[in-house]
Amino acid sequence: MAAQAGKHVFLDKPIANTVAEGREISRVCEAAGVVLALGYQRRRENHFRWIKAEIDAGRFGRLVQAECNISRDRLGKIDLSSWRYQAAGTAGGVMLQIGIHYVDVLEMLLGPAKRVAGMAAQLVLPGDNPDVASLMLEHEGGAISNLTASYASARGDKEPQAVAVEANDTIREELEEFVACVRNGNKPETDGWWASRNLAVIGAGIRSAREGRVVDVDAVIAGAE
Q1: Over the stretch 21-50, which tens digit does the pLDDT of each residue have?
Q2: 3-state secondary structure at position 69
């Protein structure tokens, strides 16, 4: 209605809950000859602008990988009547609500994503929407990026607190444990079964990337995959 009335349109992200709706909004605004802009303010933060300028100047060489995380503590702070925390109002939960900001940033820095693998879960917050999620994106230039988003990242303090720990020799410790197990028959902290499952997880990831589907780790272990 705004576009048909000749009014320019500014929407906060996301543009819609479905791609079809987003494309229709874009079509209507284009047909009406009005400006349609989206509120992706994160890309305007100075540190991202600096990175983008360095990339454009060729100072980073070939881009191959990026990691991005946005985490917030929403436990006990949400209104379940709000559309933000309902699947009907925000399909995809935390990834659509705040993770989409960094999809925008990653595509700005690394180029459009052409393939995506993802997982989401509802682990802490009430309601019916995922509160933790992860995406792995393959960009058109071949770079891989990882994006994680969470509403369930509890923080007890407003500022990070340093934790003092004693320096240790990790190689010596694992060899000393090995010797002790040989002598007393105890089980190592990381034995062959543990290492085999680690390997199965990697194998499942490799197959998932190759075949574009979720792969069950236990099925890999059982030789069914």
Answers
A1: 999 999 999 999 999 999 999 999 999 999
A2: strand
